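In response to reviewer comment 3 from the previous cycle, which asked for concrete evidence that the modeling workflow produces usable outputs, we include below a single protein chain processed end to end. The sequence was submitted unchanged, and the resulting structure tokens are shown without manual editing.
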Amino acid sequence: MVNRSKKDAVFLIIEGESKTDNGNLREGFSKLLEQVLGNQNKPRIIMGNGKGQAIDLFLNTLTYQSEKSCLLIDLDGIENQKEDDLKKNDLEKRKSTVFYMIQEMESWFFSQPEIIDQYYGCTVATKYKNKDPKSINSPDQELMEIARKAGHKTRREYHKVRHGLELLLLLDAKKLENDFEDFKKLIEHLK
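The workflow returned the following structure tokens.
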């Protein structure tokens, strides 16, 4: 890996809350990427809020229009819907720098269900151990139900930002590369 100067900075725009009052998703993604990229080669992460806002930043902000910049968004669907989503969001010309969390970021947590058990103090890992995490419809809702059933006093409801940050910090990035093709391609692009 080659260390980048500031002028060679790669920007990674990610769908997700940019406000930090309930947790800092940018920090969670940064620590996750650091596992495989090291500290010197991490991209400059910009949280783009909702999907539409992140796409708008990526396509319409001069700073992010370089071929070095990339976008990480939820697909909100199954893997074979990527081409349709690229077309629908006018991303076809930049598709080599668009990467998806399939179906959502929470799918990553279900790919390593032991972290859900660890975080919520429950035992759901065996239920998800042999299930394809990309096939879970609305994984955020599934996580909400797990959190509710776990009944932990401070974690009764899944909170996308606060809990998302804490769960991102528990993920094994190497395992994510093996389980999610788009995550692997993102890492290759960032190297």
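The first strand starts at residue 11 and ends at 14. We consider this sufficient to address the reviewer's concern, and the full set will be provided in the supplementary archive.
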